[in-house]
Amino acid sequence: MATRKKSSSSAHVHLQKISVEHTFPVVFTRHLFSPGNLVLRKALTRIPSTNRHRALVLIDKGVRTAFPELPQHIRAYFKAHAEVLHLVRTPLTLVGGESIKQSTAPVQRIIDALRAGNICRHSYCVAVGGGAFLDAAGLAAALFHRGVRLIRIPTTALAQCDSGVGVKNAINYAGAKNLLGTFAPPSAVLNDSAFLESLPLPLLLDGIAESVKVAAIKDVAFFRALERGAPKIARGNLPTIQRLLKRCALLHLDHIATSGDPFEQGAARPLDYGHWAAHKLESMSKHRLSHGHAVAIGIALDALYAGCLGLMPEAQVRRLIDTLRTCGLPVFAPELAQTDRRGRLTVLDGLEDFRAHLGGDLTVTFPAPLGARIELHEIDNTLMSDCIAALGEWE
Ligand SMILES: NC(=O)c1ccc[n+]([C@@H]2O[C@H](COP(=O)([O-])OP(=O)(O)OC[C@H]3O[C@@H](n4cnc5c(N)ncnc54)[C@H](O)[C@@H]3O)[C@@H](O)[C@H]2O)c1
Ligand SMILES: [Zn+2]
């Protein structure tokens, strides 16, 4: 619908409004590539076509190492459904983890493979991997032909509950986290719980950190479930972890669908609670700290700050930090105490980076109280420094 307004000056302003609805299935399944499992077939054939549905499959090397027969299983799946599906080449494996986001070369390599496979805007890029892998593959798919269809198959806890179900992708650039990226909703997200079985406990805990994050600002009942489940989580109990990850994914999806700002055009980023410090700590530690572990520290710190401001009762701050620690997540790292030549804590630069990323006023989300949230536009650096010191001495 177009509206026409006559302004007070001589200019005519034509105000164009465009509404685009995005619908994509997010499926929780098991053994996705078993020929009898129709989830992938349905995702690839959801939009009818007179031709076979073409797909290029990309695999995170870490996943391939854990599941060496995965490429054969994928080929067999496409063969079993050959009347409607066509695999354009043998699955392509690339090194995943944060290194895939550290330069533009892997994105270019994926684009070359999409081109060689004649992937068009009606065919699919299917990416199987962790959050970093999906971020890089997602960027390539969004750029190629201005965007080809992407099916995400997240294989880590964090990707299944958070990054893989969202609408963003990115790679790092010039030392800045997620500097180059797009908003591009996927065609489908297919979570296969069997992929979680090969994950070491720290990678499972990364997803739990994001779950505590979203629970703390959105759902106190979910927080209680995490609190109760913490001892089992620490033992790597998969049924408990899977249940909690699914709940986290659904909360994320609900936020994207109902927040009114799925493409983050406003200043508020509730799902980035704890992330100003987390992103800084990740780069300061040269990615020794994983995203999820850095998030655990970031949300502990900001909960403490919220407590100091009286936004959250002290008992709740303690419960949040204790839950993270009982799960086996860190709430402190030596990088937090690192200072520059003037004695200023380096991590506080993360607030400036965050402000620059938002592109305007600083807006930082805090739990206030547990299960609800508040946005603050100014941070008292002295108080934040005191909180960092207090976190270092947390018992
Ligand atoms: N796009 C978003 O909205 C969004 C949101 C949150 C986080 N992220 C990004 O996600 C990334 C972190 O993702 P992550 O936590 O999934 O870690 P990751 O992608 O860095 O993967 C960690 C390691 O696990 C390996 N791996 C993946 N699946 C495996 C499996 N099933 N078994 C064994 N090894 C496996 C990978 O090869 C890698 O070596 C960060 O770059 C972060 O910025 C993006
Ligand atoms: Zn995160």
How would you sum up this structure, described in words?
With 395 residues, this protein is of the alpha/beta class. It has two domains: 26-198, Rossmann fold (3-Layer(aba) Sandwich); 201-392, Dehydroquinate synthase-like, alpha domain (Up-down Bundle). It has 14 helices and 13 strands. It has helices at residues 39-45, 61-66, 70-80, 105-116, 131-143, 157-161, 201-218, 220-234, 238-258, 275-284, 291-308, 314-327, 349-358, 381-392; strands spanning 2-6, 12-16, 26-29, 53-60, 85-87, 92-94, 124-129, 149-154, 168-173, 176-183, 188-192, 364-367, 373-376. Strands 3, 4, 5, 6, 7, 8 and 11 form a seven-stranded parallel beta sheet that branches. Helix 8 (220-234) runs parallel beside helix 12 and helix 11 packs across helix 14 (381-392). The longest helix is centred in the middle third of the chain and has 21 residues, at 238-258. It is globular, with a radius of gyration of 22 Å. Bound molecules: nicotinamide-adenine-dinucleotide (NAD) and zinc ion. Zinc ion binds next to helix 11. Residues 60-63, 66, 96-98, 101, 129-133, 135, 155-156, 158-159, 162-163, 166, 168-169, 178, 195, 198-199, 203, 206, 290-292 line the site of nicotinamide-adenine-dinucleotide (NAD).
Number of strands: 13
Structural class: alpha/beta
- What ligands can be seen in this structure? nicotinamide-adenine-dinucleotide, zinc ion
Give the SSE order as H and E letters: EEEHEHHEEHEHEHEEEHHHHHHHEEH
From the coordinates shown, what is the CATH architecture of the largest domain?
Answer: Up-down Bundle
- Average of the residue pLDDT scores: 95
Strand coverage percent: 15-25%
Name of the CATH homologous superfamily of the largest domain: Dehydroquinate synthase-like - alpha domain
Q: How far apart are the first and last residues' alpha carbons, in Å? A: 60 Å
DSSP summary: helix tally? 14
CATH hierarchy, class of the largest domain: Mainly Alpha
Helical content (DSSP H or I, runs of 4+): 40-55%
- Could you tell me the CATH topology label of the largest domain: Dehydroquinate synthase-like, alpha domain
Rg (CA only): 22 Å
Shape: globular
Query: What summary fits the major beta sheet?
Result: 7 strands, parallel
Query: What is the total domain count?
Result: 2
Low-confidence stretches: none
